[in-house]
Structure formats: C-alpha cells, structure tokens
C-alpha cells in the first residue's frame, strides 16, 4: 500500500449523493485497493452538524484506506492540496423543473469554488462537476480558475451513459458488458444524444439490432428524461446511481480504462461542436489524460441531434454571461 494519501475534496457532502459517495470512496472504489484517501468535505455552515454525523458513520466503518477526514465551510481550506475535487453541492431540481432552471440559484456556487480551486488545489487537480446544471456549472468553475488547465474541468454525463447502456442491454437481453463504444453526446439535459449508430453489441452495430422507430421515439427520450422519471417515482432526484457514476467517471479519469466512456469536457471544435462550452463526447482515457475519440462517422440524424444539444449549452453559456458569472 502506498503511504501518501490522495486528497479528495467533496462538496455537498451532507447531501443525498454525498451519503452514498463518501462510503464508496472510503472503501477504495475510487482509487483502488492500495491507495489511502484523505477526504476534505465542504458544506454550508447549517449542514455541518449533519455532516459530523456522517463522519461518525465513516469512522464506524473502520475503512482501512481512510487516512483522515476534514470538514468545513471554507472552500479554500477544503480544497487545499486537493488532487481530485468532486463538486456535488448544489440544489437539486423538483418535479416539473428543467435543470437549467437551477442556473441562477446554483451557478454562483461555482464562481467561488472555481476561484478557491485556482488558489489552493494541487497542481494535478482533476475537477468533476455533478451539481446541476452540471455542464454549465463546470464551465463557470473553469472560467473562474484561469490558472488551472481547462481540460481539468469535466461534468458528469456518465450517469446518462450508464442508463443508456442498461436500457439497451435490457432491450436486447444481453449483459451490460457486451455493449461497447456507446456514448452520450451533448448536454446533461433532455437534448442529450445517445448514439447507437457507433455502439457495438457483441461486435454488431446496435442500431442494426433494433427498430429505428424504437431508437427515435422510445430509447432516446427515455434515456434523456430518466432523471425526471426518478424524481417522479422517488420524490427526490437520483442519488446512489449519481454517486456511482461520479465514481466511475473520476476513477476512469485517474486510473484509465480500456473502454470508450462518456465525459463532458471543454469543446475543441471536434465534430463541429462549437468551442466555449463543456459538452459530452465519447472519450478514451490513458495515464490520467482523456482524449475525445476522433474519426467516428456520424449520420445526418446524429449530427443534427449533437448540434441541437450544443446549442442548448451555448444558450446556457449566454445566460450565465448575462448573470455575470463568467
Ligand atoms: N449530473 C448528474 O448526473 C446528476 C445526477 C443526480 C443529481 N445531480 C445534481 O447533484 C446535486 C446534488 O444533489 P443531491 O441530491 O445530493 O442534493 P441534496 O440537496 O441532497 O444535497 C446537496 C448538498 O449541497 C450542499 N450545498 C449547497 N450549497 C453548497 C455550497 N455552496 N458548498 C457546499 N455545499 C453546498 C447542501 O447543503 C446539501 O447538503 C443537485 O444539483 C442535483 O441536481 C446531478
Ligand atoms: O434529473 C435530475 O434533476 C437529477 C439528475 O441530473 C439525474 O439525471 O438524475
């Protein structure tokens, strides 16, 4: 076991995602079985008492990999030296809301947190935004952290990726790991695009195994509105699955993966998606660095859907510019 703990900062640690996330990180699900972890947990002051209770429970698990836990409401203290920052803390939407309705309430959280990360995080920090609207909150944090390389700011579309995979596996009655090269493109909102034309199922193109009408009328809308369906069913937004996807994304980013995964990353003009936003792409990750998969063939339907989702992100960017957040 290496002795130097990796510092993982988590915001919104007393919330419902936090309650699932922290225990998985402490058990080794993020960094593997040989790496001790130091948790640095940021909350708003009124939630610190509840967070103390969560820390008591972390203690009571006697996790061998959990080196130490710090809590507080000062971002500069909790992000100090952080190698990974999981920005979860933000208000969730309620039934009937769109995620972009959260921009004015949540967006400002990410100006201060971006600035604090810029000041005190470790040189190798990787930042993943889960709090909604995740893509544009990540953009706000990035724009407020000019000294951190832009590519270190990601947003979470791995939950959508996992949902898309699970839903296709169920339809085709195959195991989830028979599905390869699936990716979500665009925004974490109902315009997101899961591309089945480049997805393989046991080596065959997924789109050839199902009806086109099912893809367009059932599959895409069901994947894209799954978050809302969960809110309707549970009366609260997804939590354990969101925590699991947050771990999947950051683990693959830090440790690498041989799979294509969906990551929302700063755009670089690939596939004609305009620069200046954080949008989801199929990515490969190696040695702590991701690359957008290049050279995929996109049909006209896919191109149209991807650019329509990018337009939503451009509109969100314009809205936060108007709010003075970037
Ligand atoms: N991207 C995704 O796939 C995805 C999936 C699920 C949920 N989410 C989003 O994640 C966010 C958190 O969801 P939740 O269910 O855990 O919500 P929650 O309300 O249970 O917890 C949020 C926590 O954040 C804290 N918080 C608020 N402002 C903060 C700040 N400035 N600094 C630190 N902490 C702060 C709150 O005190 C609260 O404890 C929501 O915005 C939700 O919509 C995203
Ligand atoms: O849908 C939501 O508001 C929560 C989250 O983004 C989700 O996709 O489950």
TrEMBL record:
The keyword NAD applies. Its EC number is 1.1.1.37. Signal peptide: none annotated. Keywords: NAD, Oxidoreductase, Tricarboxylic acid cycle. NAD(+) binds at residues 12-18, 106, 113, 130-132. GO terms for molecular function: L-malate dehydrogenase (NAD+) activity. GO terms for biological process: malate metabolic process; tricarboxylic acid cycle. InterPro entries: L-lactate/malate_DH, Lactate/malate_DH_C, Lactate/malate_DH_N, Lactate_DH/Glyco_Ohase_4_C, Malate_DH_AS, Malate_DH_type2, NAD(P)-bd_dom_sf. The keyword NAD applies. Transmembrane segments: none annotated. Substrate binds at residues 93, 99, 132, 163. Belongs to the LDH/MDH superfamily. MDH type 2 family. This is Malate dehydrogenase.
